[in-house]
Amino acid sequence: MAPPLPGPLxxxxxxxxxxxxxxxxxxxxxxxxxxxxxxxxMLIAAGVxxxxxxxxxxxxxxxxxxxxxxGDNVGYLIGRSGGRALVHRWGRYVFLTPKRFHAAEEFFxxxxxxIVTVARFVEGLRQxxxxxxxxxxxxxxxxxxxxxxxxxxxxGLWATLAYLAGGHIDAIxxxxxxxxxxxxxxxxxLAAAFLTRHLLRRRRRRRA
Length: 208
Hints:
By secondary structure, the protein is an all-alpha fold. It has helices at 13-19, 21-31, 39-51, 57-90, 98-111, 114-119, 125-135, 140-165, 169-207.
């Protein structure tokens, strides 16, 4: 029996426990053409279940890879057929605002097809990946190749790490929780230092 999923993975436990591989495929698929679904978190949770012997890690990886590639291709078709007008009209319903879309589009234009691979690991770009590629007119075969490579690396990384952690997830999460407060305090101090530095510089400029 798989251990209870801790922390941010816990809310996916009923869905994953009841639907198994179907949940992995469906959530990853819809996330990849813009629907705000926790695809990456679902992949990690499924990897943990596989590490605990509840699911088969090879099946999880194959299903997640296939769903990721298909989902991005649906996004590509949406971008290719509907263009910017469709994104600007309906994108806000899936958190793809015109401002966010424009930034992603500029990023793609500057970096070319290779960014399709890297975008898989960037929250926001992962969901808009296919839509932006289709809208900017990237050739489909080029998109498919880079997209498949990115999906393979993304699935391989998270599925492997989660699988290895599967049998020790409670101990790992306890360690993370134990040091979480110290990490937050360090970040708060760093933010305060940057803010103080910014205010001092602005005051000096005003005096000058």
